Amino acid sequence: MDHIFVVQEHHAKKLHWDFRLEIKGVLRSWAIPKEPPLKPGIKRLAILVEDHSLDYADFEGEIKDGYGAGLVRIWDKGRYEMDSENEKKMVFHLNGKKLKGKYVLLKFERAGDKDWLLFKAKE
Fold it and tell me: Considering the entire predicted model, what is its pTM?
């Protein structure tokens, strides 16, 4: 079964990318300080943030005030299929315009509950 994913380029206080996967009726979300990896061998820190509603997948515009204030634009969007998922690791196939193929989100063992690693797996 496939679901939506979206990556929003977020020009807040510091530029970052919001990586969002539809899971159990919400967009589970991670903030990535650098552009998401387009090829294997590139690893990115992905910091788990609050879930967002599914309608947020289409949001582009300016957040005027408060936390996250700044310009948001859709960087990539598409469908994905989860291969495997547990509390510490998710393996999935993305089918977007930029992000295509097998990706992994891996939770850091030594860090807090919010730090994950995102990378494109070798096919």
Answer: 0.93
